Automatic annotation (TrEMBL):
Enzyme Commission designation: 3.2.1.21
Organism: Bradyrhizobium aeschynomenes
Keyword Amino-acid biosynthesis: no
InterPro entries with a match to the protein in the record: GH, GH_1_N_CS, Glyco_hydro_1, Glyco_hydro_1_beta-glucosidase
One Pfam short name: Glyco_hydro_1
Protein name: Beta-glucosidase
Organism placement in taxonomy: Bacteria, Pseudomonadati, Pseudomonadota, Alphaproteobacteria, Hyphomicrobiales
Similarity field: Belongs to the glycosyl hydrolase 1 family.
Length: 451
């Protein structure tokens, strides 16, 4: 249960969404730095040049985490900050930033969880074909080696990728995210080369980090047909193959889902599948809501549709279905037989500072209560869940939505960079403290898991 002493309570962020300092201390452009300047791509034309200014305010943010009682923090390193050209000479100023962050986390008794890639591919590599170029597996392995050798004395938890299904489908298939490509061959090349890069990085991390604990972070959402029509049912299966199975299935079982195999086969070389399916230590899950799917005319033949009118929705229109979270956790447990860490879960809300200076985000608190209760149900039913990380610590740059969607449990005034913990942050801190109190009251010898 979540009152085990080894259970991790954390928060997650990503480099591009919070760091800012986009052109300071040697950092070069990522594909998102370029994409967000394309007219019409970002709501209200927001940019991430400053974002939450975490690059300069990380100590303040770590203090917030400590005050909340978090014992783990998942962040990403920015590839273009560490290797401005994506390969070749490393940037010492960028490397030193993460030294400072990691050391500050450890001093606060917060375990660092380092994700190598959260969507910010160096633009210099995109100019060489990016994820469509098979050589990227070697470039990514070299990047992983740099990170492992620099931080592996202090960091033991590593994720290779965050949500590869999203950045490949939206970035190379549907054209909604950077680099804005909508091409069937580009999508399937990217899927395979990301998988190959994952396997190469796992090997590097095993080699270079003593005691490394390695996984990947997958976004998994049940895909329900919008109607009872056969066309919508088939579309839901197609989307599920891309969204849920294109990455964890080959990484676990050395084979692609049947729905994708013919399209990806031209890019598979001898030995690739064994390289992809390297053993990992845990399954990282990001989950928000189910998808409702209808037949579509796009290149995957599936479109996102509306949820039934009876399904509650968040302020940004996402379905709120806690039982889908429970069922997803149980499905992962039964299919992949790995410890599970929930590395993103949360919701956006209409957060307003009241006259007393507080943010009473009751919708977010209700969501978190319902979803952590659903996680408890899954654990009682046998799912081996060992940690929960809320998305997100801070209101940040939410990709195409810019700053119009606030997912943080800490409010950020982006004009002044003032941080204000919301009511949901207080609830999260109180819930964590209560679970820890239960754990301390239990007999210690009953809980011997390392987590």
């Amino acid at each position: 249960m979540t009152n085990r002493p080894s259970f991790l309570w954390g928060a997650s962020t990503s480099a591009f969404q919070i760091e800012g300092a986009a052109h300071l201390d040697g950092r070069a452009d990522s594909i998102w730095d370029v994409y967000l300047h394309v007219p019409g791509r970002i709501k209200t034309n927001d940019t991430a040049g400053t974002a939450c200014d975490h690059y300069h305010r990380f100590a303040e943010d770590v203090a917030l985490m400590r005050n909340l009682g978090l014992n783990a923090y998942r962040f990403s390193t920015a590839w273009p900050r560490l290797l401005p050209q994506g390969r070749g000479a490393a940037n010492e100023a960028g490397l030193a930033f993460y030294d400072r962050l990691i050391d500050t986390l450890l001093a606060a008794e917060i375990e660092p969880w380092l994700c190598l890639y959260h969507w910010d591919l160096p633009q210099a590599l995109e100019a060489l074909g990016g994820w469509q170029n098979r050589d990227i597996a070697g470039w990514f392995a070299d990047y992983a080696a740099l990170v492992a050798r620099r931080y592996g004395d202090r960091v033991k938890r590593f994720a290779t990728f965050n949500e590869p299904c999203v950045f490949t489908l939206f970035g190379y298939g549907l054209g909604w995210h950077a680099p804005g490509i909508a091409d069937k061959a580009a999508l399937h090349k990217a899927i395979h080369h990301v998988n190959l890069s994952h396997g190469r990085a796992v090997d590097v991390l095993r080699r270079d980090v003593a005691g490394a604990s390695i996984g990947a972070i997958h976004n998994r959402q049940p895909c329900y047909p919008c109607t009872s029509s056969p066309a919508d049912a088939a579309a839901a299966l197609r989307l599920a193959a891309y969204w849920n199975d294109a990455f964890p299935v080959p990484q676990a079982f050395a084979s692609y889902p049947p729905e994708l195999l013919d399209a990806i086969s031209p890019y598979i070389a001898p030995g690739d599948m064994a390289q992809i399916a390297r053993p990992v230590d845990w399954f990282g899950l990001n989950h928000y809501s189910p998808h409702y799917v209808r037949d579509g005319t796009n290149l995957i033949g599936a479109s996102f549709g509306p949820a039934p009118e009876t399904v509650p929705r968040s302020t940004i229109g996402w379905p709120v279905v806690p039982e889908a979270f429970r069922d997803t956790l149980l499905d992962i447990h039964q299919r992949f037989h790995l410890p599970i860490y929930v590395l993103e879960n949360g919701t956006a809300a209409n957060d307003v500072i009241d006259a007393s200076g507080h943010i009473q985000d009751d919708d977010r608190t209700s969501y978190l209560k319902a979803y952590t209760a659903a996680m408890e149900q899954a654990i009682r039913a046998g799912a081996d869940v060992r940690g929960y990380f809320v998305w997100s610590l801070l209101d940040n740059f939410e990709w195409g939505a810019g700053y119009s969607q606030r997912f943080g449990i800490v409010y950020v005034d982006h004009a002044t960079q003032r941080r204000i913990p919301k009511a949901s942050a207080r609830w999260y801190a109180e819930m964590i403290a209560a679970r820890r109190a239960l754990a301390h009251a239990a007999e210690p010898h009953k809980w011997t898991e390392s987590g």
